[in-house]
Amino acid sequence: MDKKKVAVPLVCHGHSRPVVDLFYSPITPDGFFLISASKGNFLVGIVYEIPIETYNYEDSHPMLRNGETGDWIGTFEGHKGAVWSSCLDNNALRAASASADFSAKLWDALTGDVLHSFEHKHIVRACAFSEDTKLLITGGFEKILRVFDLNRLDAPPTEVDKSPGSIRTLTWLHSDQTILTSCTDIGGVRLWDVRSGKIVQTLETKSPVTSAEVSQDGRYITTADGSSVKFWDANHFGLVKSYDMPCNIESASLEPKSGEKFVAGGEDMWVRMFDFYTGEEIGCNKGHHGPVHCVRFSPTGESYASGSEDGTIRIWQTTPNHSVDEVAKKIEGFHINKEGKTADKLSDA
């Protein structure tokens, strides 16, 4: 009989505060990359080519990593408050971040330089690049969606009609013709027409949606609300599947290649994998020491990452290749991490 396979993750240290957001870039000529956000208390500049364990600073700064190996590339510094969201453009050449210091920032992802700071009047909770990378959208406690033209950084943003609640998540879909948002204090997902600036559809949920993701092929919207994970048709907006989870879930992500499985994480500290078609649990990964705030599949579908209250990021293989006996021989709590190693992308810059 085959020995049961279990997952042994790559464990990425560096954040000293809870990891609240993860974002994978698409596959680029240099590979793919992972950026993370952490809700610390202080943030100032960028440090590159300095091993994390030898550089002493407070947290609350996005970190850039090689998406396949988890190797640390750099730490973006410049904010002065918790960073709630971070993302990369399609070429992984620029990064953006949304912060409690009432600003969103645009970064050069190769050098770590701040390209521009977009000032707001309240906490900025979410940000996202458009598919064509020409626009950046932000949202937060002001309940206003702002669209910034990245070719005219000093130009005032276009403001979309006021959101009914404080904005928690946002993303683009339909080739940048539609914006998807969820709120921290009310249920539902709202779809906004970019041209009119109006809500054209609301996907109803009982609880506030804490995670919303558009699948890589553009077919599905994956949401997490309360103890439920839902899949919606991204074109006709009908509910395709809804599954009850074992606990309150903060984040869910659909495998991007076959779309046959999804992962979810939440308050019980475990990262679970489920069959997309049946909702059956097919895997359970244990290792975090605090609630799981975010999970995301890599663009290849071969691995997925989880971020937790414990300040770590764990990168799990979608198909585990270690048996129970093999794992038992390893020292308990053994961590694979290569902090401080500079990736080729940076050293070539």
Please provide a written account of the structure.
The strands form eight sheets. The chain has a five-stranded antiparallel sheet, with no helix packed on it. A four-stranded antiparallel sheet has the order 2-30-29-28, with no helix packed on it. Strands 8-9-10-11 form a four-stranded antiparallel sheet, with no helix packed on it. It is mainly β and 349 residues long. It has helices at 324-328, 344-347; strands at residues 5-6, 10-12, 19-24, 33-38, 46-48, 63-66, 72-76, 83-88, 94-99, 103-108, 114-119, 124-129, 135-140, 145-149, 158-160, 167-173, 178-183, 189-193, 198-203, 209-214, 220-225, 228-233, 239-244, 249-254, 261-266, 271-275, 281-285, 292-297, 303-308, 313-317, 322-323. Helices cover 3% and strands 46% of the residues.
